[in-house]
Amino acid sequence: MKKNNTRTRFAPSPTGEPHVGNIRTAIFAWLFAKANNGSFIIRIEDTDQARIVEGAIDSILESLSWLGITWDEGPDKGGEYGPYTQSERQKLGIYEQAVEKLLKAEKAYYCSCSSERLDQLRKSQSKSGKPPGYDGHCRNKDSTQVLDESSKQVVRFAMPKSGITKVSDTIRGNIEFENGLIDDFVILKSDGFPTYHLANVVDDHAMEISHVIRAEEWLPSLPRHINLYNALELDPPIFAHVPIILASDRSKLSKRHGATSIKEFRSNGYLPSAMLNFLCLLGWSLDDKTEIFTEKELIKHFSIERVSKSSAVFDNQKLEWMNGHYIRESDQSSLIDNLLKYWTDFPVETFDIEPSTSKLTAVLPLIQDRIKTLQEAGPMINFLFCDAISYDTQLLIQKKMDFKLTLDALNEALSVIKETDPFTACNLEDSLRLLADRLSIKPGQLFGTLRIATTGQRVSPPLFESLEIVGKDTTIESINLAVKKLNTYGDQN
Hints:
Blueprint: E1 7-10, H1 20-35, E2 39-42, H2 56-66, H3 86-91, H4 94-104, E3 108-111, H5 115-127, H6 143-149, E4 154-157, E5 164-169, E6 173-178, E7 186-188, H7 196-206, E8 211-215, H8 222-231, E9 238-242, E10 245-246, H9 262-267, H10 272-280, H11 295-301, E11 312-313, H12 316-329, H13 332-345, H14 357-367, H15 377-381, H16 403-419, H17 425-438, H18 443-455, H19 463-470, H20 472-492
Parallel strand pairs: 1-2, 8-9, 10-11
Antiparallel strand pairs: 3-4, 4-7, 5-6
């Protein structure tokens, strides 16, 4: 392995949409590489052909790109250590060579045990309270005998039956495993594909990976991998096993807790910069007070030693707060770009008219401090981009107002609005407050009725500023329509 050359990798299996836990691990590996002027590699581990989901590779790469994570080598970029997809590497015979070496050294053996026998073995072990694991049935058989017994053999690694495997983990310190508690695991399946255990060891060495940063769920596999490295006479990389992510109830984060994939968070209106910042803080911190980091600051400050051993809790409220912070701190141009891209990627059905940059520029100052996600912006401003405002007529009648008083208020407001010149938020507010006083109703009652009439919503951006953006003609048209709807309502009731 090359000295003084930091190389990390993210090696996902294309079995579905990338989970935030997997992506968080990728972020840590990427940050470590960048913080040490090293290289970050993407490798697709698709040896489990039965579980491959179509489009999963694209989803993985898109999720990383959306977060701003770049890689130096990978299936889409190539590199001198390619190919970067294990099924393609399998065709080159890379894993078979390793298996042959282990067979010749008598550190691996063929196994012809049927699935029925293995199932019966598991049942028997469970019944007697023994830990599940292969019993070594074929370990001492002659390979010719095993090959004659079945046409669907696997190859198992011959784990040492005594002694201790010691390994130093950057996060967890020195760890010891009793070899006798680990069964002889499969390294080559009957279909000719390697298992994860063999493939990742062979590929990490071949690609000169210096540091393997992965989830703690792989800790039980660590002695298997160390012994494989030893048997193949290869130097192992430096390992770091990061903590898992828990839900707020301290259970393992899953779909029952809400969004778990990067695509879901994108569709919910989260900014990539906020998502990156938030995920970095799940298990890592600089100190006990700093929470907002730019990408450059994360790269500058990141160290694997500051990653906690303890599980991190995914706090949706904190993510929402952080996203709101990033929205508030966004310059107008970038926020408009993010909104337009969001509505392109995730179309808002309530928009009848394509949002214009000019109207967005006008309305953005009214909502920027009010929204925590991009998703919230659409419903709040959809009245600006619809052919006709729709609402339940009864909503026009505010608390402690009746049909007649509401109708009178609308007609009086219509007269005031027609006479307001120039048609500005300030002028509208002054005139309509005087009208409320004259009608002996609270300003909030009048404004509530006008809000429904002109936006169709109980909650909207500031009313008068909104009306200024909408314009006098459209405002008058909307109030006239409200009067007609109210008259019809009165006739029916």
